[in-house]
Structure formats: structure tokens, C-alpha cells
Amino acid sequence: MTTTGQVTSRDGTRIGYLRDGSGPGIVLVQGAMGDAYNYRELAEALSPAFTVYRVDRRGRGLSPKPYDAAHDIARDVEDIDALLADTGAGFVFGLSSGAVITLEAARTLDRVTRAAVFEPPFYADGISHAGIGRVTEEIERGDLGAALVDALLTSGTGPPVLRLLPRRVARVLGRAVLAVDTRLRSPYAKLRDLLPGIRYDFNVVGGVDGRIERYAGVRQPVLLLGGTRSPAFLRGSVRALEQILPDARLVEFEGLGHDGPWNRGRGGRPDDVAAELRRFCLPQ
User: Fold this and answer.
1) Does pTM top 0.85 for this prediction?
2) Beta strand pairing call for 3-8 and 114-118
3) Which residue from 80, 82, 174, 263 has the highest number of Cβ atoms inside 10 Å of its Cβ?
4) According to the model, what pLDDT value does residue 281 have?
């Protein structure tokens, strides 16, 4: 049975989560453009062996928070720390920007005993900070269609064809995607509701840009996960971390993309990801 809980972070922000299963605690940290529901099937697959905490990061779902331009990764780590302190969990898993937060939590928090990350976005040539600024401006003026397109282009996670389209055409397409998504009857959060929170993700990723070497200080065991269908820079990021981290193991899923941990209806293979997490967190 799924239950709902809440903790208070150091700055007073209320962080909500969903709890499933029983056993040692594992916290699932979401990336951009998703909330706790995207991890529903992963939680189901893990719940026979773990107490699973699907946290909604600040600015989305169960953790509403107006965007603060001064936000940095330290606030996200404080949110995770509050949850670990309250629940006694020690395992943390993160996807994408949530994977960056997971690594930072492992680097700075003794409460993290093991960490697993799926494709944290570190950019060999740096992320476009001009692109991040453009996305922020578009969100602030309410042009969410343009923000969606520029977020995909800036992050490098959009379909390759998007870079070939004239910007004006791409933005029209972005607005059409949002309009269709708004009309869909679905249990998933609407894209237009998730988009404002992507500024938190860009603050996190942009804030550690060019600083991947800092994670050589992570002493806990780390499981690195990725998929063969993901963009080359994400696969390179995971392999770079394999060389940097003192105690790391890399698993690459054949035919899986950046949405690998999400529900099957969103392109994921949560059962496969859960199997690797069980092997890593519950070694025989």
C-alpha cells in the first residue's frame, strides 16, 4: 500500500514523498520533467525488498515551492538529508539531474551508504549557460512552448531532428505538443505544470558544470547505470565517472534510453533497473 509522507528541509521547505514496501530504505530522486508517478513501476519492482521513498523534488508535485533564482544543489542535498534523517534510509538512487544530486549527497552526507545513478548529465564541453538563460526568460514570460524546445536543445536530450528545424518551426511544434498534452486524460503530471520546475534542474546541472572531478571524493560504493540508446554525451559522462569514482561499477542496458528507470509506458524498463539495484544494494 502506498502512503504519503512529508519532511521539512533546513530552509523550511516541505518535501513530500510516497512510501511503498518494506525492508531497508531506498530513496528515488527524480530528474527533470517527471514527478514521483514516473517511478511508480520501479517502486513496485523494488517494494518486496525495500521500503521505497519516491520523493517529489521542490517545485513539483507534493513539494510545491515557487522558483528561487538563488537555488543551488546544496538545497536539494538538504532536502535529501532531511528525508534520510527522518526515515533512516541509506540507499539513494537518482536519474539525470537527480543523479547529480545523488552524487553530491554521497559526497557530502555520511547518511548515504550506497548510491546508484542513471546518466548524470556532465558535459565535456560545458552546458550552454546562454541556453539556460533563454529557457528561464521564456518561462518567466509564459512562452512554455519555446521553453520546452530550448530546454531540450540546451540539455541535449531532445530528438536529433529538433536541431535541424528552424527555431520558429520548432517553437510552433513545442506549443502544439503542450496543447495536446494538456488535453490528454492521464495520471501523469502535465508538461506545462512541470516546465517551470526545470529551472531548478538547470541550476543544479549548471552549478556543477565542469566540476566532475569533485566526485573523486565519494567514498561510498556507486552503481553507474546507462543505456545504449542514450545521447553520446550521457554515455560518456557515465564512463568518465567510472574512471573518477574510487568504488564504482558500470552497467549499460542494451536498447535503453535516458528514460530507462521510468514506467514502461514512458519508455522505461523499470524491472531491469530494479534488478540491478537489488543486486547492488543487497549484496549476497
Assistant:
1) yes
2) unpaired
3) 80
4) 92
